[in-house]
TrEMBL record:
Species classification: Bacteria, Pseudomonadati, Bacteroidota, Chitinophagia, Chitinophagales
GO biological process: fatty acid biosynthetic process
InterPro entries found in the cross-reference section: Enoyl-ACP_Rdtase_NADH (IPR014358), NAD(P)-bd_dom_sf (IPR036291), SDR_fam (IPR002347)
Catalytic activity field: a 2,3-saturated acyl-[ACP] + NAD(+) = a (2E)-enoyl-[ACP] + NADH + H(+)
EC number: 1.3.1.9
Pathway listed: Lipid metabolism; fatty acid biosynthesis
Residues annotated as the enzyme's active site: 150, 160
Gene Ontology terms, MF aspect: enoyl-[acyl-carrier-protein] reductase (NADH) activity
Family per similarity comment: Belongs to the short-chain dehydrogenases/reductases (SDR) family. FabI subfamily.
Pfam family, one: adh_short_C2
Name of protein: Enoyl-[acyl-carrier-protein] reductase [NADH]
């Protein structure tokens, strides 16, 4: 449904790896709503070449940037502003990576060097992005920055491992930087806490199939899809959400406020018979 919600707006989308990526779907929605885009991902991810399909579909340049490298980020924001001929109106941070999960380390036995790297890529990278934009005054007034989070920031999901800590830190950075950027430039910073979704990053979590089925049964509306998350992002980038900032916004079909559902009780009772 195209209704030009983002007509005249210009945004940077981090993290489109393949067609399943939430960032990929968000880029398509933003384009459909009239936005102009710049796409970016880590050089290693770009080597897969998939992103070129998306770049063509949304008519956007691809600028490589490792989100832990300040020189890459500075170059990205400079090139994006040159491409647009002005400031940036919105940014999607759709990035997550856990070295300890990838290497099969249990939460109680994490390697701290890998942990530093995971926190840097998945959480402090939001600070790095905001700081780069802040130093260059690259985001327009009422601009909107969204990062993607998960409810393991608030509640324990044992197999989510160190990513739970990363998401808690990510949400805190959104709040803290959101305060300063709001005061100085009326720039908004929020996190969207999304249902489990079948993507490359999502499927890396141990026991993901059980995880996603459980969430589906617990949520009155069922799990929110990547497409619906993309719609929510587009809304958050639009002027329809101007006074929303420093929030962690649950986009999860109601999961976060359910204690237990009848469907889950029924499954447990059936298992006991
Ligand atoms: P994805 O695997 O498609 O996206 C993750 C992206 O992070 C990839 O494009 C990857 O190249 C990028 N990335 C990793 N290291 C990077 C670096 N050093 N510099 C720049 N980019 C880097 O998976 P998905 O699910 O679309 O993930 C997007 C966001 O959504 C992540 O923050 C994830 O934690 C979050 N999320 C995902 C959920 C799920 O179940 N899939 C649920 C809730 C939140």
């Amino acid at each position: 449904m195209a209704n030009n919600l983002l007509q005249g707006k210009r945004g940077i989308i981090f993290g489109a790896l393949d067609e399943k990526s939430i960032a990929w779907k968000t880029a398509l929605k933003c384009h459909e709503q009239g936005a102009q885009l710049v796409l970016t991902n880590a050089p290693v991810a770009l080597r897969m070449g998939e992103i070129n399909k998306l770049a063509e579909a949304v008519n956007a340049p691809v600028i490589p940037a490792d989100v832990t490298n300040m020189d890459d980020l500075k170059n990205l924001f400079e090139q994006a502003q040159a491409h647009f001929g002005g400031k940036i109106d919105f940014v999607l941070h759709s990035i997550g990576m856990s070295l300890n999960v990838r290497k099969g380390k249990h939460y109680t036995e994490i390697n701290y060097e890998w942990n530093q790297k995971s926190l840097d890529i998945s959480a402090m990278s939001l600070h790095r992005v905001l700081r780069t934009a802040w130093d260059m005054d690259a985001i327009s007034e009422w601009g909107s920055v969204v990062a993607l989070s998960y409810i393991a920031a608030q509640r324990v999901f044992p197999d989510y491992n160190e990513m739970a800590d990363a998401k808690a830190l990510l949400e805190s950075v959104a709040r803290s930087f959101g305060y300063h950027y709001g005061v100085r430039n009326k720039v908004r910073v929020n996190t969207i806490s999304q249902s489990p979704t079948r993507t490359t990053a999502g499927s890396g979590v141990k026991g993901f199939d059980g995880f996603i089925d459980y969430a589906e049964k617990m949520s009155p509306l069922g799990n929110a899809s990547a497409d619906d998350c993309a719609n929510y992002c587009a809304f958050m980038f639009s002027d329809m959400s101007r006074y929303i900032t420093m929030q962690n916004l649950f986009h999860d079909g109601g999961f976060s406020f359910v204690g237990v559902s009848e469907a889950v009780v029924k499954t447990i009772e059936e298992g006991q018979q």
